[in-house]
Amino acid sequence: MSSTGKATEGQGRWRFCVVAAILALLGFALVARAVEIQFVERDFLEGQGQARHVRVNTIPAHRGMITDRFGEPLAISSPVDSVWADPGPLLEARERIPGLAEALGLDAEALTRKLERRREREFVYIRRHVTPATGRRIMDLRIPGVSLQREYRRFYPTGEVSGHAVGFTNIDDRGQTGLERAYDRWLSGRPGAKRVVRDRMGRVVEDVELLREPEPGRDLTLSLDRRLQYIAYRSLKSAVQRHDARGGSVLVLDARSGEVLAMANQPGFNPNDRGQLQGERYRNRAVTDVIEPGSTIKPFAVAAALESGDYQPTTRVDAGPGWMMVGGNTVQDVHNYGDIDVATVLQKSSNVGITRIALSLEPGDIWEVIDAAGFGRSTGSGFPGEAGGYLDPLPPDSRFERATLAFGYGLSATPLQLAQAYAALANRGRMPSVSFLRDAGDQPPRRVISEGTADQVLQMLERVVGPDGTAQTADIGGYRVAGKTGTSKKASAGGYADDRYVALFTGVVPASDPRFVAVVMVDEPGGDQYYGGQVAAPVFREVMSQALRLYNVPPDAGDTLGDLMMAEGRRP
Q: What are the structural domains, with CATH classification, of the chain?
């Protein structure tokens, strides 16, 4: 072999050895790196992977259902989806944002600006509470960084009918008003948690570990009767519209337990429509708004007179000549009733008569009865925002203040307070605690006046609904009705307005064995009719006549069935 051939063969071996050595070094390096990755850097790399793809997801808890006293649903939660995004990946694919915005009915430019402002975050809601069909359509678009989260949305089957009582939740399912807020902790569950793996588009591809089971909220049974709530709502709304009034309230209590069976207000709102969630509309006037109760206070002034021992229902009182001067102010009646007895003072709602009675008593007698009946402080119902009204902390000194207190001015109360006070008359002088929950009467009734006095006042109040009383329109054929009208002027700058009134009627039925107490308040009725007997009493009659039928309360006035049907506008 020539020298040239030997040189070529030597170069080939040298090249082979170099290539083999390089390949061996590369193989060794790969093996070393694999060992380093698998053993030395394993924990670090797993942590980095988990940081990018493993997340802890919240499992929403189902909010408890709210039902009426018979188990009918008033508030329920239904599962929905919410669209969220990781701004980083979505902004990298910003050409997909217009399609996402269009599918969700959003403005693309506004959505882009929102994502830009939150670029550093990893979770941003795009649209809350979408329908399942919308959610599926969004996920079919396969947009990077966009995913769904399961949540719950609150629905109210009765809508506007019970909106003020039940209240509503915010978008995070937390109680904001009404009984939703009062019992939020009871209704709210405890969210669960699970560890999941997400792909680069943010979708869950694997459930790794359940960290905590969700605990659903507890159901809540209210004292409300959904049937009676519909009746009260419909009757009140009709009256407010008919009299072109500013608003109104109806409250119905169980006379024995103090449970609230119905509570409706106008103007109303539908809690299912978040566009209606305005303070002026969702404010519960029956609990939060105070009024001067006017003549509906007179039964308690008469009760104080009977308790003093100086008066009986037949005691004569001079109400002539229909007016009188007290402390430089004029107290007057609609008519000159002349010489009448105490029962007629209530029947005719005589301001002069009740003033003469009040001024003949000790200065604190009437104040003490009104104070004992709960005026000037909250009922303790637990309803959010309940007002306590106002009553002077001490008995009035001046004669005029003693007089005005006796016919319902100089103090303020809510319709709920007024209903509770009349429940004391219905319970033979014992006032039950007010409750919005069924069978929650854990507090015994409190004695306000004696049994004999309560019975006598209730009997006198029956004459108010009689042929010569101020509330003939509250009469319910076949039943004995006891009640009192009230028409109070509204305060304005410099005194009381002459064209703004609150029409009231508070009644108990059946009077022989009280089952219901109801308060009807109509705020600023328009037109020529503004007296409580004209505006509020007919609503009482309509609501209570149907309540008596619903609860199968037997008639107690001895009327025939034909008389009862004719009184209700039907043919026998």
A: 60-187+205-221 (3.90.1310.10), 226-272+286-567 (3.40.710.10)
